[in-house]
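Blinded run. Sample ID left blank on purpose so nobody reads anything into the name before looking at the predicted structure. Input follows.
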Amino acid sequence: MDSFVIQGGRRLTGRMQIEGAKNAALPILAATLLTDEPVILQNVPEHSDIRNMLGLLQSVGSETTMGGGEIKTHVTDSSRSVGQYDIVKTMRASISTLGPLLAKRGVAVISMPGGCSFGDRPIDLHLRGMEALGAKIAMRNGYITATCDRLQGATIFLGGPFGSTVLGTANVMSAAVLARGITTIESAACEPEIVDLATMLNGMGARIRGAGGPRITIEGVDQLGSVTHRIMPDRIIAGTYAIAAAITNGDVILDEFPWDSLLAAMDRLRTIGVHIHRVTPDPDPRCCTVQVTSERRLRATQITTQPHPGFATDLQAQFMALLCMAEGNSIINEKIYPERFLHVAELGRMGARITRHGSVCVVEGTGQLVGARVMASDLRASACLVLAGLAAQGETVVDRVYHLDRGYFKMEETLQRLGASIERVDAKEIPSDPNFELSATEIAAGAGTVIKQSPDC
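Blinded prediction complete.
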């Protein structure tokens, strides 16, 4: 099992390009099951989740090749429609194959999905959507079995207790493109990844209108064809590296920065004292090249995660690391996944002063963190700890970085090119005891762990 060893305190400088979006690519890969013709996807990130999805596609009869950021898929055997547990358990996005398999083949048997563990994320809206389209759903031995003759268009409400469901919207939209008649999705997710999926499906011959808004209309067609589609840049990766530049007081240029997808995050960054300057627009008006710098003294702020176009929950942990370096008390209100705070205790090991009250955290910015050995718990929490390590005094060891590999391609190499001192090592090679000791003076000065948690947590 790999770990990162980080020597903090180095200023990031240089230039990098934002890779393709994993959260867009996964449901798009699942949607290639809707056609018997070849599909070519470009700008695909080479993450472990992508490789796992390709394994799932192969297990249900699709031939796939991958190389140079391009994936080619072609369904050659439509007789297999079972998503096995061994593959599906590795990522939540496996559920995205339910709609395409059901719509194209009339049957889908999918194991309950896995992925990051930071709270309850039910798939009831996915199943409700399929039932509204005419599918029969059964649960047996941890597997979802869905069957139909041909799906029938319907009006479907997909709002949940914490907002719209992104994967649920993708699943229902993918199923509805081959349904008979017109389907209307109300309270649809507005995320740009949904727009990217709709663009790809329309390129295959689907008739989808309204993607990016709360109401999506799909006019069903009899079949879909081939397409060549370029995956959108990853807005979460873009936000992560913008924060990395800010937390190290760096100067970094980011190419293919998805400007329109990060307006809420940029608003909070500017409030804190981070400068994001648009350098040269790219041909795609949604993307551009930006320069990220920051003021030496960062300010506190308030953040509330919301469905898009609000502040993305997938950037909450990274922002928390940044706010530890700000002056004053910041408030983070997690409205999407109220339990998504597994990184709080680990930041506390690095000297962070954080008080949690249910879904709200108060971050007392001290302007400094100290190196420690910490454990990654999920994808974005892992990124948070790496960012904290970049800014911390001394050495930080981040264990279980396999979580990071699910969403960031060779993150350590990217950060090395920007000037960070970070190395991937086998965790067995790291001594069990830290390579440094805090003096009594440092502890008394507040370098030690300070975490407060309200009794109702």
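Unblinding after everyone has recorded impressions. The chain has two domains: 2-19+233-453, 22-230.
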